[in-house]
Amino acid sequence: STIxxxxxxxxxxxxxxxxxxxxxxxxxxxxxMCREAALSFGHEVECHQSNHEGVLIDLIHEAGRRIKEGExxxxxxxPGAYTHTSVALHDAIxxxxxxxxxxxxxxxxxxEAFRHHSYISPAAAxxxxxxxxxGYVLGIxxxxxxxxx
Length: 149
Ligand code: DQA
Prior knowledge:
Blueprint: E1 2-7, H1 19-22, H2 27-39, E2 44-49, H3 53-68, E3 72-78, H4 87-96, E4 100-104, E5 126-129, H5 134-148
Parallel strand pairs: 1-2, 1-3, 3-4, 4-5
1,3,4-trihydroxy-5-OXO-cyclohexanecarboxylic acid is lined by residues 10, 78, 80-81, 83, 104-106, 108, 115.
């Protein structure tokens, strides 16, 4: 089945955006890594990036519908800065009953205080933080293992 990989605001700038914090891999590079990781478990990925909160909410709802149809397994989600602001994304994950692995490239806990709180974490099935872009691969592995258990 399909694993949805969702990226939130500013992650389209990966590779050129604050490379000391986020590295030099582009979003396209990350999507290739995700595709290979999913394939090693016999799954496919579908990658989406949006700078718009409502679009991300719609994608979570879509994931919920497609999970019920047995077509989608779950979601690996880097919500970007919406992590720290979005009650609406928290509610979407809960409301659509979607297994979400929350991924942050950087170690948000070692950064500014405003990045220490996540509205997403209490609704997430698991969290990967501070492992660089490899975190997406770890997120896919974690999602597959969790859903097998
Ligand atoms: C991020 C961390 C967030 O605080 C930040 O707003 C991002 C990226 C990360 O992947 O480390 O956009 O989610």
